[in-house]
Write a structure and sequence with these properties.
The chain has 15 helices and 11 strands. Helix 1 packs across helix 15 and helix 2 packs antiparallel against helix 3. The chain is of the alpha/beta class. It folds into 2 domains: 246 residues, Rossmann fold, CATH 3.40.50.150; 150 residues, DNA Methylase, Chain A, domain 2 (Alpha-Beta Complex), CATH 3.90.120.
Length: 420
């Protein structure tokens, strides 16, 4: 039995990828960001070509031998057309429902997954907004999520968001989270929620998220959360085989990889294929000389003394900010022998918070390194709105994504519950 799911607020489909790897089938993806939609289409193309033993076509695309349009033309339209580039709103829902119905072909959905954009709930976002994000329309996207549940009545749903969701309040002082739970209950769902740290599920990154799982028409108790892994994965487990680069170097096109053992985490996790000899998107951003000097200080301090650089301790000639009393950890080195700190979308703006630990390379993380920390497979390609690749768009999609291995752990647990 193939379990079918719908992915709403899909982003670059990190959550979806985990469910696909666990054996679920995506009926459709709904996402407003056009670049992310192209990323999803390219990933669907990869999966279909791999299933047809035509992966050379995908390799030809990565090597610029065929265009993106030519790649998509070789994939059945019914697959490419399951990516719906729409903003979810009261006005667009009827249109979106109509397109999903065409994708479903009278089949029943087993699952809906997704998490609305999290900026309105995030503690950082609320602290920076003069009104605490209370007027932000993204506070109410959960109402639209509930409309999908009301229409399709899947057996389960998975709702993912930031920790700030648990404390965000509306104008009346009521918690949005409580309003969500009540609304989902009105739609017939018993819910369970948990703060899950991705580092407990094979992800080489400390990333805490609220995972809310609902079950339709359930009067009995249920436990939908996977057990934690006994061992944690370190950053070095996913970065050590990549070619060394300096600031502004690398390429989107395939580059040679070091050989690794079949028993390595990269192989066992499915991030890297045992036969893989090349990697894409191992590209770094260029840095100003001042930043490179700061990076060198930060990495030496971390590697020698295991201490983080504080902005107020920098030499005077390297300081550009007047504020020396707050946000002192503006520069942060990725720890090698433990899970990384959280990768967020701000990495698309600068790399100061994601400095590579090798002072000889002296740079911030490459796109592929960030993707590895999010446990995206090496075959995952990140797209932009145009056919011209965008490092910024790639970083943004990666930072906003749900780590694939976290999603996969949740998916396998739900599959076990549904099929037994």
């Amino acid at each position: 039995m193939t379990l079918k799911f719908l992915d709403v607020f899909a982003g670059a489909s990190g959550l979806s990828e985990g469910f696909v790897q666990a054996g679920f089938k995506a009926v459709a993806h709904v996402e407003m960001d056009q670049a992310a939609c192209y990323t999803i289409k390219t990933r669907l193309a990869y999966h279909w070509l791999a299933s047809q033993n035509k992966i050379k076509t995908y390799d030809a695309y990565l090597n610029d031998e065929i265009s993106r349009e030519e790649l998509y033309s070789k994939i059945p339209k019914k697959i490419i057309n399951t990516v719906l580039n729409d903003e979810i709103s009261e006005e667009t829902l009827p249109h979106i429902f109509s397109k999903i119905d065409q994708c479903l072909l009278n089949d029943k959905l087993d699952l809906i997954i997704g998490g609305p954009p999290c900026q309105a709930y995030s503690l950082v976002g609320r602290s920076r907004d003069s009104n605490g994000m209370k007027a932000d329309k993204r506070n109410y996207l959960y109402l639209h999520y509930a409309k999908f549940l009301e229409k399709y009545k899947p057996r389960y749903f998975v709702f993912e968001n930031v920790l700030g969701l648990l404390s965000a309040k509306d104008d009346s002082g009521e918690l949005y989270f409580n309003k969500m739970l009540n609304l989902f209950k009105q739609n017939g769902y018993t819910t369970k929620h948990k703060v899950m740290n991705a580092s407990n599920y094979g992800v080489p990154q400390s990333r805490k998220r609220v995972i809310l799982i609902g079950k339709l028409n359930s009067e009995s108790d249920f436990d939908p959360f996977p057990e934690k892994n006994k061992q944690k994965t370190s950053s070095s487990d996913v970065l050590s085989d990549l070619p060394k680069l300096n600031s502004g170097k690398g390429s989107i096109k395939p580059q040679e990889l070091k050989p690794i053992s079949k028993d390595s985490f990269l192989i066992k996790s499915g991030i890297r294929d045992i036969e893989a000899k090349k990697i894409t998107w191992h590209l770094t951003r260029p840095h100003a000389e001042r930043d490179l000097e700061i990076y060198k200080i930060a990495t030496n301090l971390w590697n020698i003394s295991n201490k983080r650089l504080k902005y107020d301790n920098l030499p005077r000639h390297l300081k550009t900010h007047k504020n020396e009393s707050s946000f002192l950890d503006r520069f942060k080195v990725v720890a090698l022998q433990q899970p990384s700190h959280t990768v967020v979308a701000h990495i698309s703006k600068d790399g100061h918070y994601y400095i590579h630990p090798d002072s000889n390379q002296n740079r911030s993380l490459s796109v592929r390194e960030a993707a590895r920390l999010q446990t995206f497979p090496d075959t995952f390609h990140f797209e932009s709105v145009t056919s011209k690749p965008s490092r910024t768009a790639a970083f943004k999609q990666i930072g906003n994504a749900v780590p694939v291995l976290l999603a996969k752990s949740i998916a396998f647990k739900l599959k076990e519950i549904i099929t037994t």
